[in-house]
Write a structure and sequence with these properties.
Blueprint lengths: L2 H12 L4 E3 L16 H20 L3 E3 L6 E4 L14 H18 L17 H17 L6
Antiparallel strand pairs: 1-3, 2-3
Length: about 140
């Protein structure tokens, strides 16, 4: 497990909560078997404290003065954005997948479907791609033959 893994757990928590408590909220975070090593179990609070310290340096959270171990978002998570650089091949794949899926949902009538501009992939495009993946994952694996 890395600090990125721990920060991802904290990020997920902060999607629904505006605070994070070292004493209360760590227990609610579920780790996979691979993540839950003996070292993680022994040093869980220290690992979370280190990850939260990084998030403080990044300006994502602040530790509440007079309440050590309690962190609060500096602003709502939905106000953050990030820049992602895509290669032309990846932009082509994202566009083809989302456009093809949208066309299939609309019976091939592109005028009514959502169209990705492959030269300017947006967060909405990536969100649609993720939605498609979740739909596929929710269907489960195909039956064994």
């Amino acid at each position: 497990m890395t600090l990125v893994d721990i920060k991802n757990h904290i990020f997920t928590h902060l999607l629904t909560e505006s605070t994070f408590s070292l004493s209360d909220d760590i227990a609610s975070i579920k780790f996979s078997k691979e993540e839950l090593t003996e070292t993680v179990v022994q040093h869980k609070v220290g690992l979370f404290r280190t990850a939260l310290s990084d998030l403080v340096k990044q300006g994502v959270v602040s530790e509440i003065e007079g309440s050590p171990g309690i962190y609060v978002l500096t602003q709502p998570l939905n106000s953050y954005s990030q820049t992602v650089i895509l290669s032309p091949i990846v932009a082509e794949m994202v566009g083809d997948l989302v456009n093809g899926f949208s066309d299939a949902l609309n019976g091939g009538d592109e005028r009514d479907g959502y169209i990705v501009n492959k030269m300017q992939i947006t967060g909405e495009d990536i969100g649609r791609l993720c939605h498609m993946c979740h739909m596929i994952l929710d269907e489960g694996p195909p039956p064994a033959s």
